[in-house]
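Changelog-adjacent note: as of this version, every example in the card shows the full chain rather than a window. The one below runs 427 residues end to end.
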Amino acid sequence: MIELCSDGNFLKTMKIILTIINVLRIMVPLGILFMASFDFYNAIKEGSPEELKKRAIVFGKRIIIGLMVFFAPTLINITVNAVSNGDTGYAACINNATNEGIQNAFVREIEEKIKDYDENGDEKVYDDAKSTINKEITDKSKKDELNDKINQIHKKRALKKNIDKLKDNYSDELYEQYLNEVNELDDSEEKEEMLKILEEVYEESKKDKPLELTPGAIGARFNSPTVNDYLDYYVYIPNNGGTANMPLVIYLHGDASVGSYGSLKTGEAYPCLERAYNGEQPFILLQPNTRVRSWTNSTIVTTLKELIEYVIKEYQINPEKVILSGGSRGGMGAWNFANKYPQMFSAFVPISGTGNITASNFKNLPTWAFSSKSSSDSWNYSNMESNVNAINNAGGNAKFSGLTGYNHSTILSGALTKETFEWMIAQ
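Full-length structure tokens:
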């Protein structure tokens, strides 16, 4: 009985029955009163005292019967509620057989169906729930709320199926579509799970995909979209023309290459790269060029960040394998840039250039610093060693190599070896 009295359709039927009873409790007493009055009138008309007395007794009995009929439902309801506290058995049926009670019953029923659909994915349950919502729920805000809840679940289930299909039949268009659809979902663990799967599918689709670029140095100019500045730069493509998901090594030059864009094609880090790999490097090298003796100027820092983001996207770089390096003044700029944006990089290799840092910013950034032990690098040596010690004291992973047989001008060839490059991309 309790479950039955919580059923919306049963309560609708109960409400109809109660409505009929309420009509009868009015109509029956009125009918009895009318008949009694008619009989009493005839008795008066006949003028017989005996008949009048007889009719008066009948009239009184009918009045009593009418009152009993009128008050009987109320007395029964009061008695049932007193016995059951109004929440079980017949009392529940009577008390819930209202517009509000019927609506609440349907809402509970729909929410159970939504839960069932969320857990089991039965499309019949989905259709039944949608039909009940649109047919039985009269409150617009509640109807919208329930529809939104089940539609979100329906959308999530459809997206899960589509994402599974995307694993076998990948396309950038579908990836973008599903990504946008997932981002529109309400925040949930399922949303985070689908975003993670999409990311994995995307990374897998791009892995080892040929870029089909011309090997060697590619020169270009990058104009900042936010500040009035630009950076000329070279990217160095391996002999295989590059593949998607390759690491990116960024090298910031020293004073010798300031304003000398052409020298980057053969100088600074490029000869070290050639000696180590002879064009077979498993990464792309980026060398930007400044026109002033600064890598810490705010507009240059902004332009450099935007250039790195552009190259990552343009050359389909693995965003988890972006390495920052720099020598001399470029080393100073690299310290400054890594201190500001440590989350952008997977490894950091400063060479004979120091900078003021917050050591905790490097806690999760593997660092390998180089300096020569010659007098030409004494200031860099001591300060870089201090930075490395501070990083390790902050819980980081940094090491420092002081090289003999090199000076400030030649340190690059001793620091940027194949061993160093391989350490970079292994992080």
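Structural remarks: The beta strands are 216-223, 230-237, 248-252, 284-289, 322-327, 347-351, 367-372, 398-403.
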